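User: quick one, fold this
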Amino acid sequence: MSDAAARAERRIALVRDDVDARLALAQEFYTHSAEPLRRYGHAELSFLRWSAARGVLAPESGERPGSAWWRSVNEGLLRDKVEAGLLCAGVRGEASARSVEYWVDCVREPSPAAWYRAHNASIVAGYLRHEELAAPESQVERFMMNVALLRVLFTHAMLVRPRLMLGHLARLGPLLVDPRSGTVKWFLDLGRSFPAVYPITLPTDDTILDEHALARMLDYGVIAPRLPALYAVAAAALEEPRLTTLLDDGVPAYVWTRPERSLWYVGNTGAHLRLIARTTGVRLRWPPSPARVRTVPLHG
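Assistant:
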């Protein structure tokens, strides 16, 4: 292990069971960076504060144990950033993962595309590495994990492939999801979609139907018809072909069984969702049975 990677591991160990220290370390990466990078942390830090408030980052041995999965995915993101920061500061070593290389590139030449590539590479690596920690989580929590993933992939794709993601509204994509802008939080804010306390005690279908109307329009009217294309775009951008295995015949399938597939159709109610899909360039054809999802692009 290189000096930078070893030092990053030690930094993570110090904050592992201290939620406030995690938040401070995440903030430190941006506040201690050069001016161009400081404005890129809005959405990430907002999501982290929401996660902390839910309780998922709490120590697993506490009175209200946190989530081993959420904690581990967050640690991976923090570790990658800390290691990249150390490498850029001159600490000896080679990047320990492709995601760290992407963060090094982002620190040296910040841009919206560089930030999304680094951030999403760290998140996807965490998803793939910690499937065994996700499996014991409740069904509704696993549903949330899939929604969080497709949302963060979609925001990246709105920047790099806006026409594919938004059709005639493509010109709005890069403006809406620039990580330096507060508007990106609209797409990554799960607080409008799910209860704010961990663990969630409501049944999954009730939780889905309680989702905020705007969030449901985004998930089912805009993102759902594009899932195969979205995951393919993300896999190519992140150089991670395994990402496409997290879909099953067009349905999100991260730690998700086939008998649970029908739950993905619960929120697809209302003719307005088909209108939204058409407005953004696809025709939504929800299947007569929960066996298959088909979408027909209106634009090449």
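User: anything notable?
Assistant: Residues 139-300 form one domain.
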